[in-house]
Structures are given as C-alpha cells and as structure tokens.
Write a structure and sequence with these properties.
Shape: globular
Strand order of the largest sheet: 6-5-4-7-8
Radius of gyration: 15 Å
Number of helices: 6
Order of helices and strands: EEEHEHEHEEHEHH
Structural class: alpha/beta
Helix content: 25-40%
Distance between the termini: 17 Å
Mean pLDDT: 77
Strand content: 15-25%
Largest sheet: 5 strands, parallel
Length: about 170
C-alpha cells in the first residue's frame, strides 16, 4: 500500500511529504490503496495524481532506469524532467527516444551534480531498497528541492511498509 507520511514523519526531507510503498484506492486518511495486479502505468499515474500535481513543475527522477516514469511525469504535465541513473547502457538506450523536455544524466542518486534547487518535485521509485547510504540520498533529495518542493519516495515492496519503523527500515528512517 501507499502512505503519504505526515510532517512528523519526514524529518530527513525537511518536512516534505513522502510517498512510500505502492498498491491503491484513495482513503480519507491520506492513504492510497491499489489492488494487487493493477500495477500498470495508468494505475500508477492515477494514484500519483491523487498526491501530487506535476503540471508545470521541474522534476528530477532519481534512479530513473530507462525513463518510464520520467516520461510519465512529462505526460502528466511536468515542464521538464531530469532522469538520473548510474547505468550508462540503460541511459544510452533511453536517450534514443527521449523527448526534448527529458534530460538523462549518469550519476549516483546520492551525488547527482545537479544544481541546488533544481527541482520542484523529486521522484525516487523502486530504488531506495537498493541504497546502502540513505543519508546521502536524503541529503541530495533535499538539496535538489526548492523550498516547498515535494519528495515522493515509492518502494515497490508492499511487505516493507508492513514492517515496524526502525533504523533498518526506510519508514523508520524517513
């Protein structure tokens, strides 16, 4: 499931809301629940739009891979997206059909080299469970955001969000 964490749960992000997990339906308590098996990009987009309106925003997609969600942010109205990934072959393949408003950059998500305040929105989808240094990731995401910007973290394993918060669980960290 997906939870929009409240301000008290977002100390590492400068108080910005965080999306954690993923599955579906909008609940009145700020939780989205998506039924298993409906994990297509359309369902993701609907759930995402329930939390963040990317229209006109400058976005950074940390750990973008082939740019699927970077392109989706553009389709949803983002003004410009910078996709960041550490894999040169994946980025090279993605550049072949990248739209003009999508820049793809090879860098570590904990040290992108992008300018301070480069984004109104930072998305990090299905990446954080791979990271050894969550401190570097959180600092970099915060540095990239303008004041009042939004950090959306989505982890692809619903079981993770069922674990109790703690130093070894992302929910406890953020």
């Amino acid at each position: 499931w997906v939870t929009l964490l409240r301000d008290a749960d977002t100390r590492a992000t400068g108080g910005q809301p965080v999306l954690l997990g993923f599955e579906a339906s909008s609940e009145h308590d700020g939780t989205l629940r998506i039924r298993r098996g409906e994990q297509g990009i359309e369902v993701w987009a609907e759930a995402f739009l329930g939390l963040v309106d990317p229209r006109g925003l400058r976005a950074v997609d940390l750990g973008c891979g082939g740019g699927t969600y970077s392109r989706e942010l553009l389709r949803l109205g983002a003004a410009h997206v910078v996709g960041v990934d550490s894999s040169a072959p994946i980025l090279d393949a993605a550049r072949g059909d990248a739209p003009g408003r999508l820049d793809l950059v090879r860098a570590d998500v904990g040290a992108t080299g992008l300018p301070d305040g480069a984004a109104d929105l930072v998305l990090c989808r299905a990446v954080v469970h791979h990271l050894a240094d969550l401190d570097a990731f959180a600092r970099e995401a915060h540095r990239l955001l303008v004041p009042g910007g939004r950090l959306v973290v989505q982890d692809r394993t619903p079981d993770d969000v069922d674990e109790p918060p703690g130093p070894d669980n992302l929910r406890g960290y953020l």
